[in-house]
UniProtKB/TrEMBL annotation:
Keyword Hydrolase appears in the UniProt entry: no
Signal peptide range: none
Positions of the Amidohydrolase-related domain: 105-370
GO BP: any one term: secondary metabolic process
Protein's UniProt keywords contain Methyltransferase: no
GO molecular function terms listed in the Swiss-Prot or TrEMBL record: carboxy-lyase activity; hydrolase activity
Keywords: Decarboxylase, Lyase
UniProt source species: Zalerion maritima
A Pfam family the protein falls into: Amidohydro_2
GO CC annotation, single: cytosol
Family assignment from sequence similarity: Belongs to the metallo-dependent hydrolases superfamily.
Protein name per Swiss-Prot or TrEMBL: 2-amino-3-carboxylmuconate-6-semialdehyde decarboxylase
């Protein structure tokens, strides 16, 4: 076991994923998306998520012209690889979480026990590197309300759990679904890390989308999915019904920091909302951003990060890497990743002084996620 003592001001990564081996095995046994498949031309197994990838498999079953899906390298499932990545980038603490598609594809009767087992697996990973790893638990949102509540309670009993990761689709109808309200109320003040789920419909990218790789769905689809989700939550009153809800938004809140003013303007000029009396005694979208929403710093530019800081405040932004996604394509994956150094550079360029840089790189996460409960034991190597 490595030493768990870290010197100086820690860098904390709040947006970093893993697919534990047991989860990968579940998808290897499936015959429909999401699933994991191996192809003769690919060294690593591939995660198949999209219907278009299934069609590609039908026409080219061995992936000779184009291997479908994303490669599941050892960065996705290996704990040793995660620690190596952290050490390479001088990351003291990571709050790891399962990546999409979580558990929404499971049989509802089986989802609860499987979710608890995967969360237990994350907890055991954290115990191997005490103080260096914490985790956001994933919930069986396709299951019954009772099973979901039980999974929440089970996860919160695990010492390294610091909240929950959820996809924007919630139980399948979005986070503004009335059935999500009692779930969020049961979570109370524990953090909910809201992450894009499947992106926007492929049709929005136009008939030539396949020529552009994954740029449109990842660069535009995921951030817009988050923005739309939070706007729907706001308009439906979720934040008022769940006043203790704390929401950490992936990818610096999508386009929410940039579009919050436009959203607010459209609300106050909407005759339908005025007629229904929904404009009286309401908090503005800016109020919610400053009171219940936190943003990660996975934005890759100082321009975007400045918008995130201006929208919610420097004390509500936390560093992230989105590892193991966006690996280097032309250099060794065991070295530094440009996707990480871009985020670090953005923090340094966007903020006016070293104190605020330290806040975003680690101090905010330690305070907000109460990492000091175990992290205070982490002082020197």
């Amino acid at each position: 076991m490595m030493s768990s003592r870290i010197a100086g001001d820690p860098i904390v990564d709040v947006h970093t994923h893993m697919y534990p081996p047991s989860y990968v095995k579940i998808m290897e046994d499936r015959n429909e998306i999401p699933m994991v498949r191996r192809f003769p031309g690919s060294q690593d197994p591939r995660l198949i998520l999209l219907p278009s990838e299934v069609e590609s498999m039908k026409s080219d079953p061995e992936g000779k012209s184009k291997v479908p899906g994303r490669p599941l390298t050892k960065h996705y499932a290996s704990l040793d690889q995660k620690i190596h990545f952290m050490d390479t980038h001088k990351i003291a603490i990571s709050v790891i979480s399962l990546a999409n598609p979580w558990f929404d594809f499971l049989d509802p009767a089986e989802a609860g026990p499987i979710a608890d087992s995967v969360n237990d697996e994350f907890s055991k990973m954290c115990t191997k590197y005490p103080g260096r790893l914490f985790f956001f638990a994933a919930l069986p949102l396709c299951a019954s309300a009772e099973m979901i509540r039980n999974s929440i309670d089970h996860a919160l009993s695990l010492p390294y759990c610091r909240g929950f990761i959820m996809g924007t689709s919630g139980k399948g109808k979005g986070m503004d679904d009335p059935e999500m309200v009692p779930i969020l109320q049961h979570i109370k003040e524990n953090m909910v890390f809201l992450h894009p789920h499947y992106g926007l419909p492929n049709e929005v990218y136009g008939p030539r989308a396949e020529e552009y790789g994954h740029v449109l769905p990842l660069a535009l689809g995921f951030p817009m999915e988050t923005t739309i989700c939070v706007a729907r939550m706001y308009l439906s009153g979720v934040f008022d019904k769940c006043p203790s809800l704390r929401l950490l938004l992936a990818h610096s809140g999508g386009t929410l920091p940039f579009l919050a003013g436009r959203i607010e303007s459209c609300i106050v000029h909407d005759g339908h909302l005025l007629k229904e009396g929904r404009l009286k005694n309401r908090r503005t979208i800016w109020d919610v951003l400053n009171q219940q929403i936190y943003l990660d710093a996975v934005i890759y530019s100082d321009v975007g990060l400045r918008a995130a800081v201006l929208a919610g405040g420097v004390d509500r932004v936390m560093f992230g890497t989105d590892h193991p996604f966006f690996p280097p394509l032309e250099t060794d994956e065991q070295g530094e990743w440009e996707s990480v150094t871009l985020n670090v550079t953005s923090v340094n360029y966007a903020l006016p002084n070293q104190q605020q840089v330290k806040q975003v790189l680690g101090g905010n996460a330690v305070n907000i996620l109460k990492l000091e409960r175990i992290g205070k034991e982490i002082v020197a190597a």
